[in-house]
Specification:
The protein has 15 helices and 17 strands. The protein has 375 residues and is α/β, with parallel strands linked by helices. The strands form five sheets. The chain has a seven-stranded parallel sheet with strand order 3-10-11-14-15-16-17, sandwiched between helices. It has a four-stranded antiparallel sheet with strand order 4-5-6-7. Strands 1-2 form a two-stranded parallel ribbon. Helix 9 packs across helix 10 and helix 10 packs parallel to helix 11. The longest helix is centred in the middle third of the chain and has 24 residues.
Length: 375
Amino acid sequence: MNNRERVMATLRYQKTDRLPIVHFGFWSETLAKWADEGHITAEEARGWGDGNPIDASISKKLGFDFNYYSCFHPISGMWPGFDSRVVKEFPDGSKHILDANGVIVLQVPGAGSIPSEIDHLFKGRAEWDKEFKHRFQFDPRRVAEGWARVNDEMKRFDQGGLEFLKADKRDYPYGLHCGSLFGNIRNFIGVENCAYLQADDEELFDEIVNTVGELCHQCVKTALESGAKFDFAHFWEDICFKNGPLIAPNTFREKVGPHYKRITSLLKQYNIDIVSLDCDGWIDALLPIWLENGVNTMFPIEVGTWNASIAPWRAKYGNELRGVGGMNKTVFAFDRSAIDAEVERLRPLVELGGYIPCPDHRIAPDAKWNLVRYY
């Protein structure tokens, strides 16, 4: 069996010759450290990207089969983004930066975490109509200008990538990225502003959700109608944190759920039956909403402080729920005994079927190269 067959068989509860060994990429700081240590080249560290040929090379060196997050990405978000610029500089070297989402963030020298949000260009209806709405309209170039991985090279969709995806001869699984139905909205409005907007201007909130949902649907529809073949579909959200979702589940079900259903129904027409979703944090309150709207594979199942695992979800929702992830990547910083213990913890989860262990997010800078190889 090849890796494509292994992954699809595992997620469909079919027999395989062995478990596929997958990962979810790396922090740039991790790759820079490994380059300094001589495990990879500086060029590899700088040129890495999800699913690109350098990613495949590093995966092979470490012993992974591939990066699960290998997808064709139509441009389904804000396009074009805002031009980034410095808004204000401070004596300690920190800066307020206007980013591509129209958010003013605090940039601190040497910091590697998500930057703090200071302010947002979006304030309400006036800014939506003038500055944002036109950035979420469909244009065929959003699909044509996406990049597809073609064996050991990358080609733009309309410059050879489509013919490769039509040929359907890959030995690794390749997904169609279906966009983000709420995460991208949260990105430019902000968590607090999103909460207020739902109460202060529900009509505008609905318009934004529907505009983004229509854009994602059009991108998926255009990619599928081109004749390209995909093994699975994938969404991105990141709308939960350690204590639960960043949006009320009832609101998510009512406002966002129908857009998931519309897209996953379209995917079924093209025989795409595995639909995964990347959401960090404690996702339990939103999980049934995704399931009822056609998303059946959770990723990356962050273990976190809340000890997330596919086991209780499987007990509650049955075999319709699949998973990729759930491997506690923090053990890469310790020793072989920690790796051994984590593998043994995962063993009964693998035996449930429909589950592929994967480090539960980007492999962090404290990870030791030889321990990742040992895993």
